[in-house]
Design a protein that fits this description.
There is one protein chain. The chain is α/β, with parallel strands linked by helices and about 375 residues long. It has two domains: about 230 residues, Periplasmic binding protein-like II (D-Maltodextrin-Binding Protein, domain 2); about 110 residues, Periplasmic binding protein-like II (D-Maltodextrin-Binding Protein, domain 2, 3-Layer(aba) Sandwich). Helices cover about 45% and strands about 20% of the residues. The protein is built from 16 helices and 14 strands. The strands form two sheets. An eight-stranded mixed beta sheet has the order 2-3-4-1-5-13-6-14, sandwiched between helices.
Amino acid sequence: MNKSKKILSIICAVFSVLLACSTSIAASDASVPTIRVGHVGHDHHLALYVAALHSETRKETWGTHLRELRPREVYDLYEGDTRLARLILVQTEGGGAMPATMVRGDIDVGLGGTAAIARFADNGHPIRIVAPLQADGDQLVMRKGSEITDWESFVQAARTAERPIRIGYKEPMAVAKLVFERGMQAENIAYGYEMRPGLGVTLVNFASEASPLPLLASGALDGVVMNQPGTAMAVHRGAAQVVAELRDLPPEGKWHNHPCCVLGATQATIDNHPEALKGLIRVLMLASQLINDDLDVAVETSVRWIRNPNEVASMSIPTSSHIVGPDPVWMQGMKNWLQMARDVEFFKGKYATISEEAFLDDLLFLDFVIQNEAILRERGLIGQP
């Protein structure tokens, strides 16, 4: 064998070994289930990334933890020394697209938007919300230098404007847009979707654009309602200034903990892998508690995993509520969201007419969260309700 062939043979052998190791990591043995976990890669899903980066160093305290096998991709889920599951992390296109990925069978559980999961469930697909994850985190921002600096000055400007104020939104069912509309209704601000006399605000869908920042910079938009970290990025880049947290819009207190991202699961995963799913929910609850307790850890995780600038992470994370358990405020937020969804005829199936309680009973499966709350309180790892 000449020298070049020998080198090629060695390279092929090494590659084969690496490929075999890679395959063995990705595939779990038969003793535990493999759970494919969809996520989007923004800070609404921060609990997953905190669990991935920080839970193993806290395993003595937490008990439930993740052990990294391949960074950002493959983790084993443990309760103490007992392995519960192998987790394969799969980044999906967006929170709204996540349920479609579940329905196709590409993932088993997914972190994504309430509206998207509810729509698929409304259409008869066997998926359910198994845990709250994150709420709030929506803001109204105006172009940098605008004379509108708070909600009161926005209301005054909208009532007296010579031309409608142009406010962008990213999709018709975005919770930021729905809450903003209800806030304007409470203030009797006339709004619509076209530039015409008599309106205080014109709503503009910028979904076709990769970012609303050029539209703000050019003056095509006067402001934007959207979720974090988009608004923090707009401020960081000098394109916008924060005017209001949408959770604080009127009626007072109604929009606190308005639901955004949740953990969804297929009914098959709930039925076939209850202990693995319960363990996953438990480590996400612990990570959410850590986010609430230690902003430095949360910001550091956002910078490392999502690669947001430190300044963006520091602005964005505190504006969201990272939910440890489904408290009454979050449950009421779900009912408020249902009413908003019905106001715009979002549901075409079973959720269009059933009662609030029947809606929650059908869409939500919170048994594992409730069981985990009892476990974690007994361990002293989360506070009393």
